[in-house]
Amino acid sequence: MSCGIDMRRALAGCALLTLAACAPPPPPAPPSAPELPPAIAAQYATVQDGGIEVPAVPAKYLSERTIRREVDYWTDEKPGTVIVDPWQRFLYYEQPGNRAIRYGVAVGDEGRAFSGTAHIPYSRDWPGWRPTENMIREFPGQYAQYRDGLEGGLTNPLGARALYLHKGNRDTFYRIHGTSEMDSIGNATSAGCIRMFHQDVIELETLVRSGARVIVLTEDESGKGTAPPGTPLPQLEPPVIATEGDPA
């Protein structure tokens, strides 16, 4: 092989190295989804319910604040009581021995407008939904099309279950229900009552008995029960307002 050919090859190699050095670096790989413990992944996996396939909750929406877990909770209320803290966006289902199952929830303006005691006389699986006359009158473009109601399903604002709250014989129009707006859980939202992941509200509905007592805390009571008696309550976290279109 001639020296000329070797020189040309060497120069070509140098040119390739120079081009490689000038080329922009490859984009970083997208971050991988957080790996969930198997037990948590199973809690929020895809489930068949009433002929409807409920999708799994993506790992990005599952955090310490949003997953259901058993926690310490100090209260004089009887086991089976439901306590809602709209300001911390938690719902507690009371267990014996100062323990509770804690669920992360989304809370709308309506959810923060009600406080006090109520009871749950009944619940519904995949309930239908109809906007109120006030909603239709104020926002006809958004709600008039549903004047005759919307049948149950994943696109229905009430989701997989609805637990209806009454005071005496009067419907408060306050609901604990499922939602397909999974990114809203753990946040204060622009509309709606108390919303839960479908998987969570399905479980809660199996636990709650007809007539169960419900306590909805005021802002001044927020955090009540989360610290032993005689110790300061945790500071109230500022709400994250997530504006979205789920009206219920």
Automatic annotation (TrEMBL):
The active site is at residues 177, 193. InterPro entries: LD-transpeptidase, LD_TPept_cat_dom, Transpep_catalytic_dom. Its EC number is 2.3.2.-. The keyword RNA-binding does not apply. Keywords: Acyltransferase, Cell shape, Cell wall biogenesis/degradation, Glycosyltransferase, Hydrolase, Peptidoglycan synthesis, Signal, Transferase. Pathway: Cell wall biogenesis; peptidoglycan biosynthesis. It is an enzyme of class 2 (transferase). Residues 219-248 are annotated as: Disordered. GO terms for molecular function: acyltransferase activity. Residues 1-23 form the signal peptide. This is L,D-transpeptidase.
